[in-house]
């Protein structure tokens, strides 16, 4: 159990290298809490980190990666990484490294407390509620409901996790100024943005063990598109932070994974932490950091290019809470997407960590059928970024062949298969709209409900299809099989919508169309629906002519079209 200890001079201590504070899920399904040292020593026996929130898990994984990069001094290149991958004791150097830097990992150290600023104070010596670092998600429905409206106390282990999370995801807004911060105006510091990771649509690669997860996200220093300076270092190998902040450029992944976006000081007694002082730290704009930050996709911002008169300008591509990860797979596996704006710069960049995995499979370090899970985690801020409204936590399991840099056939068909689903859902939405119009009812509600339901019906089949895609030698034939499956699912759901439409839709009414007025009833709505499905997905039975379209769908012709 985590507890306060005393060091030689009688001062309080909570050493994160030896005290348990990181929640983990073991491979046997049991939960535990481990120290930093234990996490690396037992990484092969652990399934994953489990934070109090998904964003906390992401922040802790980045902390572990910073430790691993620094302790292992790399990896310098793909061969160094391959040696680590094949060595069960690959993290052996982490123990001595943590021992050498143990003082900087002491949460309660009087001069260099972990991720804090010693002596941090406001002009009135105010100490604030721990609500300032404990995230309530969703906003207005606190995670720690048993402790609200105020979080009175945290154990030292809990406090350490929330300190890491605050640097990564703290909200923006006006904050009380601290002594020594030159940005204070009238006792306040005005909004300077969220914690660094809060800007990102976080992405990392998962495997069944934490050891494999950490190694697959351990990008080599010579990775294309990721710039890591020779002097790159994590926060604990830099000079302790004073009050206020310094504007500087990041030196690499170790720096960014531990970026000190806040200034913190915990207040505690022997029973735990009871208060905090929190202020702004080092500001960092996310603009054009795509060559530094590997754990997010990037989008080109034409609006920023026009405003700043520079090109290209890339910003992190955040996650949409209303769009499941499988529907956004293009942002994960598409290597480039040309903008069409008269420039060769791509409109989107996939996460560099996936570029790294693509390199591993392209150079034969991973088998083409090797399965990984792309995990996506990110917050959605509300009210001028002063609160967290929602957190996205989703994943997509895929074979690494989808990331292969020379063989793009599998990725292209995986992306196109999502387009198939989108087109089928669009047709279903039109059917629901037309049935509502035929009955004289409002259309927006039925359309949205039908579309949401349809995506739900297609999600599990798509995920299963994606996992099996690497097992085939012909991704085009697999795409055809997927289209037939989508057709059957969509047609079946359409039948249920028809059955539920009621007498009003069956009888119909006169409506305005692009071609004039028409008598719209459920029979005509169904005919339009079947025509749309056949047009978008092809006839699921190539031997049969669809009477509604009077067209014959030849599988060979369709296969050529897919290519």
TrEMBL record:
UniProt name for this protein: CRISPR system Cascade subunit CasA
Short name of one Pfam family: CRISPR_Cse1
Which stretches does UniProt call biased (Basic and acidic residues)? Answer: 543-557
CDD domains registered for this protein in UniProt: Cse1_I-E
**UniProt cross-references to Gene3D superfamilies, sorted A to Z:** 1.10.132.100
InterPro entries noted in UniProt: CRISPR-assoc_prot_Cse1 (IPR013381)
* Disordered: annotated segments: 536-563
């Amino acid at each position: 159990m985590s507890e306060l200890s005393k060091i030689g001079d009688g001062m309080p201590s909570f050493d994160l290298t030896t005290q348990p504070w990181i929640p983990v899920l073991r491979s046997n399904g049991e939960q535990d809490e481990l120290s930093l040292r234990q996490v690396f020593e037992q990484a092969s026996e652990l399934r994953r980190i489990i934070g109090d929130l998904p964003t906390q898990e992401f922040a802790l994984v980045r902390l572990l990666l910073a430790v691993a990069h620094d302790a292992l001094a790399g990896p310098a290149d793909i061969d160094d990484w391959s040696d680590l991958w094949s060595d069960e004791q690959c993290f052996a150097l982490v123990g001595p490294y943590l021992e050498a830097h143990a003082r900087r990992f002491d949460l309660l150290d009087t001069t260099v407390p972990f991720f804090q600023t010693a002596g941090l104070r406001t002009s009135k010596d105010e100490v604030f509620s721990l609500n300032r670092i404990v995230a309530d998600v969703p906003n207005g429905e606190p995670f720690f409901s048993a402790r609200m409206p105020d979080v009175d106390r945290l154990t030292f282990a809990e406090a350490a996790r929330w300190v890491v999370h605050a640097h990564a995801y703290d909200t923006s807004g006006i904050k009380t100024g601290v002594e020594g911060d030159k940005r204070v105006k009238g006792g306040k510091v005005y909004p300077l943005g969220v914690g660094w990771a809060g800007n990102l649509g976080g992405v990392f690669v998962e495997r069944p063990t934490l050891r494999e997860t950490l190694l697959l996200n351990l990008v080599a220093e010579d990775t294309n598109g990721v710039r890591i300076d020779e002097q790159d270092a994590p926060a604990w190998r830099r000079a302790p932070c004073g009050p206020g902040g310094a504007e500087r450029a990041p030196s690499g992944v170790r720096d960014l994974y531990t970026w000190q976006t806040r200034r913190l000081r915990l207040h505690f007694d022997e029973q735990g932490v009871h208060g905090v002082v929190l202020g702004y730290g080092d500001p960092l704009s996310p603009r054009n950091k795509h060559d530094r930050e590997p754990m997010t996709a990037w989008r080109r911002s034409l609006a920023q290019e026009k405003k700043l008169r520079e090109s290209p300008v890339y910003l992190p591509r955040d996650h949409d809470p209303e769009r499941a990860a499988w529907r956004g797979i293009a942002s994960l596996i598409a290597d480039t997407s040309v903008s069409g704006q008269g420039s060769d710069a791509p409109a989107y960049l996939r996460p560099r960590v996936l570029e790294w995995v693509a390199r591993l499979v392209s150079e034969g370090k991973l088998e083409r059928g090797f399965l990984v899970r792309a995990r996506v985690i990110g917050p959605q801020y509300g009210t001028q970024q002063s609160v967290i409204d929602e957190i996205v936590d989703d994943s997509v399991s895929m074979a690494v062949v989808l990331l292969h840099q020379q063989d793009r056939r599998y990725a292209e068909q995986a992306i196109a298969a999502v387009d198939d689903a989108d087109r089928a859902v669009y047709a279903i939405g039109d059917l629901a709209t037309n049935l509502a119009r035929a009955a004289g009812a409002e259309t927006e509600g039925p359309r949205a409900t039908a579309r949401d339901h349809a995506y739900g019906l297609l999600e599990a089949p798509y995920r299963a299809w994606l996992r099996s895609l690497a097992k085939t030698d012909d991704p085009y034939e697999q795409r055809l099989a997927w289209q037939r499956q989508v057709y059957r699912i969509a047609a079946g759901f359409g039948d249920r919508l028809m059955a539920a439409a009621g007498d009003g839709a069956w009888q119909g009414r006169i409506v305005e169309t692009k071609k004039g007025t028409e008598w719209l009833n459920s029979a005509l709505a169904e005919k339009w629906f079947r025509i749309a499905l056949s047009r978008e997905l092809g006839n699921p039975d190539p031997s049969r002519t669809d009477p509604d379209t009077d067209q014959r769908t030849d599988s060979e012709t369709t296969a050529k079209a897919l290519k």
